[in-house]
Write a structure and sequence with these properties.
Elements: E1 2-8, H1 16-29, E2 36-42, H2 45-56, E3 64-68, E4 77-84, H3 86-93, H4 100-115, H5 123-143
Parallel strand pairs: 1-2, 2-4
Antiparallel strand pairs: 3-4
Helix pairs in contact: 1-4, 1-5, 3-4
């Protein structure tokens, strides 16, 4: 089970229950066992651009960033933090034929898969991550 902490630093209304739902669903689909927690922060373009520049050396707004927490043996597992820019999600939702809510869920899921160790820096692993993302989203919407 995933415990989700939210930090909304924007004026956007966000689907917290659905976000928690998709994270718990994704945990099962990705065959990740045990209790864990994640932090999901919704930030404005200025903030996400600063983080993107500091950690990825890209001086531009992005839609989602993930920061994996280094694991220790003690205590419940904190997987890390996901930063999402709702303004960017709103801008790009139409490009993918998504509603704003669908785009936010997709971005949170994408960030969560990074916290579970999935990457897309090489084509082979990118395809694996993308396939899992699509599978989870399709199954999630089928059950909803």
């Amino acid at each position: 089970m995933i415990n989700t902490e939210f930090n909304n630093q924007t004026s956007f209304r966000l689907p917290r229950k659905k976000i928690s739902s998709i994270l718990n669903f994704a945990q099962k689909q990705a065959k990740h066992q045990g209790k864990a927690s994640v932090s999901v922060a919704f930030v404005d373009p200025v903030v996400i651009k600063k983080w993107n520049k500091a950690y990825r050396h890209k001086n531009q707004v992005t839609d989602v960033l993930s920061f994996v927490e280094e694991q220790t043996k003690a205590g419940p597992k904190f997987l890390g933090e996901i930063l999402v820019c709702p303004e960017q999600a709103k801008k790009q939702a139409g490009d993918y034929d998504n509603t704003f809510e669908q785009e936010v869920l997709k971005l949170v899921l994408h960030g969560f898969l990074h916290l579970l160790g999935y990457e897309h820096h090489q084509e082979k692993v990118a395809k694996k991550m993308e396939a899992l993302e699509v599978k989870i989203l399709n199954k999630f919407y089928d059950k909803s």
